[in-house]
Amino acid sequence: MPVQTELDVRVIPPRDKHPTIFRAVDKLAKGESLTLVNDHDPLPLRYQLNAEHPDTFDWAYEAQGPEVWRVKISRR
Fold first, then answer.
1. Centroid of chain to Cα 2
2. SS3 string of the chain?
3. How many whole angstroms from its chain centre is CA 76?
4. pLDDT tens digits, 27-61
């Protein structure tokens, strides 16, 4: 069964968020996913992920604010 992880970045200092997320995403095997939890829309992260890893991940919102944003990021 594929591994599913939750990563709550609300407690991580802003400068460390993207590096932490990318380390977690890079560890995903094909078919695995993680759910990112944040206090704002992580859309800039999506653009960065698509630029650095085109056609490698799927992105699906599970909650869209206003206080909590949840995004499922899955490796294709």
1. 16
2. CCCEEEEECCCCCHHHHHHHHHHHHHCCCCCCEEEEEECCCCHHHHHHHHHHCCCCEEEEEEEECCCCEEEEEEEC
3. 14
4. 999 999 999 999 999 999 999 999 999 999 999 99
Distance CA 62, CA 54 (A): 22
| pTM score of the predicted model | 0.90
Half-sphere exposure of 74 (CA within 13 A, CB side): 12
Cβ atoms of 1 and 28 closer than 8 Å: no
**Which of 1.10.287.470, 3.90.230.10, 3.40.710.10, 3.30.110.40 would CATH assign to domain 4-75?**
3.30.110.40
